[in-house]
Design a protein that fits this description.
5-stranded mixed β-sheet, 4-stranded mixed β-sheet, 9 strands, about 35% strand, Immunoglobulin-like
Length: about 120
């Protein structure tokens, strides 16, 4: 890994916010420290994902229109993710099942399980 790559990986891990933007779709830190959800054909893939509390989850929009990934009861929200872009959110710290939707296309649903 180059010095630049190591610096980028460290910068990605040090984010203090719950969401961030990226123009590098599908970027997951080396070693698989993050989890990823892809939006394609107006669906979340995978539609159900299990992560540890406080895990960073990268959401990549591979569709041609904007989408969101928003917890139905709050707790996490990517905001609008434009076509071809990615955003990261932090999973809740409390174990449980967290249904989510795209607030723009509310038939798009999935479940984040924190355990």
């Amino acid at each position: 890994m180059t010095v630049f790559g190591a610096a980028m990986a460290l910068a990605a891990c040090s984010s203090g916010g719950t969401t961030s933007s990226s123009t590098h779709p599908g970027s997951v830190s080396p070693g698989g420290a993050g989890h990823a959800i892809t939006i394609k054909n107006f669906a979340f893939s995978p539609s159900s994902i299990t992560v540890a509390p406080g895990t960073s989850v990268i959401v990549t929009n591979d569709d041609s229109v904007a989408h969101t990934l928003t917890g139905k009861s709050g707790g996490f929200d990517t905001g609008d993710i434009q076509a071809g872009q990615s955003k990261t959110f932090t999973a809740p710290n409390r174990a449980g099942s967290y249904p989510y939707i795209c607030t723009i296309h509310q038939y798009m649903t999935g479940t984040l399980t924190v355990s």
